[in-house]
Amino acid sequence: xxxxxxxxxxxxxxxxxxALLTDVxxxxxxxxxxxxxxxxxxxxxxxxYDTSFxxxxxxxxxxxxxxxxxx
Length: 71
Description:
The protein is elongated. The longest helix has 27 residues, at 6-32. It has helices at 6-32, 39-48, 58-65. The protein is mainly alpha-helical. The protein is built from three helices and no strands.
């Protein structure tokens, strides 16, 4: 028998990752437009999602790596 909460847990994880990816892409667009985006900005974003770079799936790590950070 399948756990009835399994689908809702997976759905919540997908929504979480989608929201995080949207926010990461927003930072990437801001950096491309000339806004100063720093590592601290990325860290603050990850803290809002209660996660860290190393805990992210590879596709999210790659999205963060595309951000042109300023020192």
